[in-house]
Specification:
elongated, about 0% strand, mainly alpha
Amino acid sequence: MFAKTEFLPARVAVLTGLAVLAYVVTVYLIFFLTYTPLNIDHAGGVQGRYFVIALPMAAIFIASMANNDLPRGLGAVQAASVGITV
């Protein structure tokens, strides 16, 4: 599908990062426009439960930012032990 696969992690990082940022800004904007009284300068009513839906995409963003390339020929047990210790 993609011509060059070395740019795929960067593309995933950019797209998921922008999507998470857009979601957070949208949640705050909605609560600022609908729930916040006129004389308050911060968005009221925003709770952590509104951001739970963005956690999987944030996890994909964080995973794509980490550069954990393992050498070829590494066994599954060795790779798991490297993953646990990092």
